[in-house]
């Protein structure tokens, strides 16, 4: 036994010994962080922007979480110019010609680590998250036929069938009468429509949300819960490396063994994809079938299916919802569009459901679609690119080259 007095003395001695190294470490970390912030501030101090954005990404995070980032970004660009600083190392470009050059096929700009946050399978890149140009182009060449619809014989027929399923759902359950009021959440039904269309186009099997009038696999509830986390990851992509740690993937992230939600979708994707490989593989002329025929690996195909279901369904649903919202809340637009549709139907210029080539001849309908996309972009998140090593000049302002020494693609 150690006497209490001696034990207390030992603890005090131990605290004194550890105090100064610990204090030195804290001071070092704070000083290092402040020095890095100062260097970062000086590199872009000639670019206007919100003062706090020069030191933290919280400004751009809060604009995205508010839900109308593109409006606030538009206002600040109108006020300060076409090149705005929105983060310690991030710029917002609003000049159309510069944007086209940055996003062109042979651009010297490359994808930033922000795209790591678009991995729905943390252990495998997809077409969107793949940052290395060589691999990205190789995978894209194997998928372009499937996405173009050239190898999907039932592309338009599949969309037509689900349009009819949605119309049937509305007429069967949600037509009100003078004595029976039946409200309907249009935003919810549009989500059901998009996921049914995309799942059937992707691997020939619709989820059945429209026919059952419910979220069959808990997909939307899970995806809505994931969106705030995905937003944070897109602004602070360094957290993506933590998310790919084995213990995080095992205990925190959705698992294919989950009974519902995104984990169940992962399991469904693996099951459907597995049917297309091996000695007894199933062959179908859908998007997944096209990917397989052009040499996409089974693991990569699983990742691409998750991307289609996750990112594809949400953006398409957002575009439809927002366009409908602006049409039905603008009486003049609604009346004009309805008149064009009625005249086309009366003169037998359109089928039921309308065909794509017929819709393209209706000028006001096309204008409404394009204006809807302009008013409410389906994907208004940041899509950062790394500036070339030697820097660049945009709208008369020099943009320093990106520091890519710590950038790693980590592609399996």
Structural overview:
A hairpin with a 2-residue loop joins β5 and β6. The chain contains 17 helices and six strands. The relative contact order is 0.11. It has 412 residues and is mainly alpha-helical. It has a two-stranded antiparallel ribbon with strand order 1-2. The protein has a two-stranded antiparallel ribbon with strand order 3-4.
Summarize the structure.
By secondary structure, the protein is mainly alpha-helical. Helices cover 58% and strands 4% of the residues.
| Major sheet details | 2 strands, antiparallel
Number of helices: 17
Measured between the Cα atoms of the first and last residue, the distance is 56 Å
Rg is 26 Å
**Topology order in helix (H) and strand (E) letters:** HHHEEHEHHHHHHHHHHHHHEEE
**What structural category characterises the helix and strand content?**
mainly alpha
Short descriptors:
single chain, 58% helix, two-stranded antiparallel sheet, mainly alpha, disordered C terminus
Layout of secondary structure:
Layout: H1 4-43, H2 58-66, H3 69-80, E1 83-85, E2 91-93, H4 96-102, E3 110-111, H5 133-148, H6 155-173, H7 186-203, H8 209-212, H9 219-235, H10 238-243, H11 246-251, H12 262-274, H13 287-293, H14 298-328, H15 331-346, H16 356-359, H17 363-375, E4 385-386, E5 392-394, E6 397-399
Antiparallel strand pairs: 1-2, 3-4, 5-6
Helix pairs in contact: 2-3, 2-9, 5-13, 6-7, 7-14, 12-14, 14-17
